[in-house]
Design a protein that fits this description.
105 residues; mainly alpha; globular; 66% helix; Non-ribosomal Peptide Synthetase Peptidyl Carrier Protein, Chain A
Length: 105
């Protein structure tokens, strides 16, 4: 069996396509799961949908890294302040879902 593991570019393209094809509810779930997973990896912890990023050790450097990762994966422009103003995976996903719907990202 020959094949190569997914590269970040392939993962990003796959997620972007899934987001574009999803209903708003499905998109919200995809975003929440992606944010929770990526933030959990950066913070070296398991996060719940309503876990507060700051309470779990998020600082300016990890917020910047999370922002960059999410922008790469989703193809969306995400200002770092969005993480501060939406301090849980669920809240940030809601915000991004609204932005996606408004811009058709």
């Amino acid at each position: 069996m020959t094949g190569t593991p997914d590269t970040p570019d392939q993962s990003a393209t796959d997620l972007e396509a899934r987001l574009a094809a999803a209903t708003p509810e499905e998109r919200g779930r995809l975003l929440t799961d992606t944010i929770r997973t990526q933030a959990g990896t950066l913070l070296n912890t398991t996060l719940a949908d309503d876990s507060n990023f700051l309470d779990n050790g998020l600082n300016s450097l990890t917020a910047l890294e999370l922002t960059k990762t999410l922008m790469t994966l989703t193809g969306m422009e995400i200002p770092m302040v969005a993480i501060v103003e939406n301090p849980s995976p669920e809240q940030l996903a809601q915000h991004l879902n609204q932005e996606f719907a408004a811009t058709g990202a």
